[in-house]
């Protein structure tokens, strides 16, 4: 009876260890198909930090009016998984309009010739599923341009004068001062 009891305890312990390992693996965001990424930099004396999920093109059509990955004319989370966040430690001007210091949900409405860039007061949300336009702090427009090179993964750059979204064959510079 003691051998049977010990075998059961060992099996339960092993099952517990395996379940724990599986749950840890599920929680590791770096293993996602669109892993988390951060872009950070200074523009004048403001520190800008963008946190986003970085999806890959994987041979798919990204910019598309029919609605595959980032459809034209619809609010997009500007990344993957959780909504992208944009944080500034000082008030800045984005495309000439005031944006107070703070952390924002960062969304975009892609278009072939013009994009609407959105800074939403609700920073932490999943995707754009519960996006509420009434919570927008600021909306500006920016002009997309053809990228000098193919960008397999979505990436953001913070330069000394702009935040630049790069993915596939498109770049969207957003002037910041």
Name a few traits of the molecule.
177 residues; 6-stranded antiparallel β-sheet; two-stranded parallel ribbon; mainly beta; 1 helix; 47% strand; elongated
The whole-number mean of residue pLDDT values reads: 87
- Morphology call: elongated
Low-confidence stretches: 22-26
The helix count comes to: 1
Strand content: over 45%
N-to-C CA distance: 76 Å
How many structural domains are formed by the residues?
2
Rg for CA atoms: 21 Å
Give the structure's gist in a few sentences.
The protein is mainly beta.
Description of the molecule:
This is DUF2911 domain-containing protein. Keywords: Signal. InterPro entries: DUF2911 (IPR021314). It comes from Spirosoma liriopis. The chain is mainly beta and 177 residues long. It has 2 domains: 1-31; 34-175, no CATH class. It has 1 helix and 12 strands, in the order H-E-E-E-E-E-E-E-E-E-E-E-E. The strands form 4 sheets. The protein has a 6-stranded antiparallel sheet, with no helix packed on it. It has a two-stranded parallel ribbon with strand order 3-4. The longest helix is centred in the N-terminal third of the chain and has 26 residues, at 2-27. The termini are far apart. Residues 22-26 have low confidence and may be disordered.
